[in-house]
Fold Proteasome inhibitor PI31 subunit.
Amino acid sequence: MESASAAKTGDFFYGWDLLYKTVQSDVDKKSDLLIALVHFLLTKHYNFRCVGIGDDKTLPEEEGSELLPDNWNDDDTKYSLRYVHDKMLYLLLGHITEDALLINLMDINTKKVSNICVEPETLVAAVKGGISTLMPSASEIVDRYRKELLDPVFTGNSREVTTQTTTSTRPSGSDPLRIGEPRRGG
């Protein structure tokens, strides 16, 4: 299964290096990388656009960007990022406790809120290097982000249509490369 996970990592995280390069000099703690990973997931795979920092609940006129804004990680104990998707505003808030990072995603319109608690010391191996060096379990972290943070709040479809991650959820009978007895017709 080594090649399957490598293929997923290669395709899914395409674009991470570019984002990381833009924030590399700002990253000074492991929680920064976990926030950057949520940002990457939102902007690349869910079509969100970042419209700045703070917790202002008014919808901005600007379109937003895939980049993390200046000063996104200046506070030592919290993060607050604003995103727009389909003219709807979302807040991504992170709070650093002693050994955990609590991340909340809120849809300002519906008031739906989700949260996830992650442990930077456990999940982030380094603050410099490629994605597999930084976060060896990045794929698992992303899966948790989707299930615990995004799915409860955001009901839209992700932009990702690659077969690497959808293969495992497809019914086995629909696999065109399946070897075995032919299916019985109805």
Notes: The mean pLDDT is 84. Helices lie at 2-12, 16-23, 30-45, 120-123, 131-134, 138-150, 163-166. The radius of gyration is 18 Å.
